[in-house]
Amino acid sequence: MSEENSLKEEMKRLKEEMTALKQQLQNMTNQRTQKRRGIYIDVNDRLAGVSDYINEVMEGVTEGIRGELEKSIFITPHTREIKIYHRGREEHEPPEEVEKPDLNKAANMMSALGQEHRLKILSELMTGGKYISDLQNALPEITASTLSSHLDVLQEAGLVVQERVRGRYLITIPGRMAYKMSNMIAKQRDRHTDTDTETESSQP
Amino acid sequence: MLLQHMQLGTQPQKLTKNTTLLQNNKCIVKTAAGTLTLPILVDGNPSGHLFIGKGEFTLDAIIETPQGAIGRPITRDLNQPFLMLGENTTVTQNLAPATIQGLTNNGYKSTEEFLKKAHETLDQFAHRRHGRFDMESDAHIFAFATEHDRWDILVAKQDKLVYTSKNRVYVSRDNGESVSLGPAQILVAKKGKTVVTDKGNILVDRDTP
Question: What's the whole-model pTM score?
Answer without folding.
Answer: 0.68
